[in-house]
Design a protein that fits this description.
13 helices; 41% helix; single chain; 562 residues; alpha+beta; Beta-Lactamase; 17% strand; 21 strands; 4 domains; 7-stranded antiparallel β-sheet
Amino acid sequence: MLKSCEQCGKRYEIDPLDIKGKSAKFKCKGCGNLVTIEKPKELLQPSETEPWSDSSNSQDFDQAFEQSNDWPEIPEVSEDSASADPGAWQEPLGPDDWPETADSYESMETDETDEMYDVQDSSDLVSDEVVVDGSEMQDPTMDIIAGKPKIKGLSLKFKITLIFVLLVLFSVAAIGLIASFQTHKALAKQAETHLQQVASQKSQEYGQIFNRVKDELEGMAAFAAKTMERDDITTDLGFGSLVYGKDGPAEGQELAELEKKLNSEILKVQRVGVALQSVVEKNPYLSLGYISTDNALTLFSNLGVLEKIRTLKTYHPHKRPWFIGARKSKRTIWTDLYVDAASDELTVTCATPVYLSDRAFKGVIGFDVLLQTIKDDILTLDIGYNSYAFLVNKEGLVLVKPGIEKGDLQWDKAFNSENWLKTDNHERNAIIRDMIRMKAGIGTYDSNEGVNYIAYAPIESMNVSMGIVAFQKDVVKPATDMRNLIILVLAGVLVIAIIIGIVLGNTITRPINKLTVMVDLMSQGQMDLEVLSEDRKDELGVLTKSFNRLIISLKMALSRRG
């Protein structure tokens, strides 16, 4: 029995008795093509001619071929044409057509008969039967669902989409996070530098203001000392003053006796009062100037204040903190916060003792710096962030900060200011300790509002330190906004990347799925297939063209076989 390879035309001599079952397959030694050979019907055993137990599920190619009655009528190829083209398709010969002699067989050989391989060993033949287990036949072909191959595992489209999405997300996320981190770091550094510059600049400005107050006060003390030593002052300027006894304002007979006794001193103090009035009017940071002698003779630069003080029966200048502090320290001082008896507002006073040329103590002269004046200036600092400023003295007591008020506290009661050295916030306590040591710098601490910066610098002329508090969340807000924008962009990029990945995956996997389905149908014996579209110009287009040529070649071969 002779069989020709459909691919290269090589012919083989086969013993039909070696075929197990209805058909068998062997590989062509010339081109590697798998050749199918059928056992002649005359040699089939009765068991081999029985139909499948479940023909509705069988997809066997040989059964489909045997049951097909629709093959077209193809004209037979004459012996002359066959001998003229030795490499052309040769119809397998039946038993009656087998050559009786070797000479008859040799007459059919081509120029390549020396390479012909005799398939005599049954091991060279592969049975093409489908194994049947009971009544259910296991089809070796792949599952086809809705025109697509059923993939076990991750599909190629999913992998392409996943790779594309991950690549885009990683790139955008990496760039965004790096940019956000660098921006956050740069803004924090810039804020620290800016806050330090502002704190240093404003402390110097306030230092100059308070130095001016101190210099003017010490100048007035020197003027008062010289005035008190003069003996040529005899003119009454009519500038009102108060004379106090041991327990309060002198009245009646006591007042008359004291005024007579202190007449020369009253005339001298009047001239100091005129000078105080001029200085206070020219300095916007001063609310009041006054002097009180060792004899409790007291004069105010504002005559309206004089009348109010006259009504305070328990008021005595020698019991006020500014007089006690200056006399005790024997130098210029700045008081802690207290409620001013004249204005009924929180006040700090710059006071200095008055000494005559023989170093005899003659009294105390002072300037009130209204706290509201300092607050209006310090608390309106515009440094570009949500921030506030404050002042602390050398004991850690807060002199100025937002929300500090006297409440219902009266002038004759001590004002208890906050001590920021004694709080539960140890980080801020450490910063305040540096501030009262008259250091300059910047620090951070945690609070209910988050992380805060404190930039600080000393105001040595007042023996206080100024701090500026800024909230980190406001400092790095541009970086936070950038991060949020990056997240939104990342979400948009994710959606776009998924869409592009799916589209890109479809452009690759759709033609591959079509080819897979076509190959599967061909493996089941279905040859009446249409060629695929060849509109692609890439590698898949080349593959499609090659597959179309395969379909056409198989159709031509089957038409000749029919």
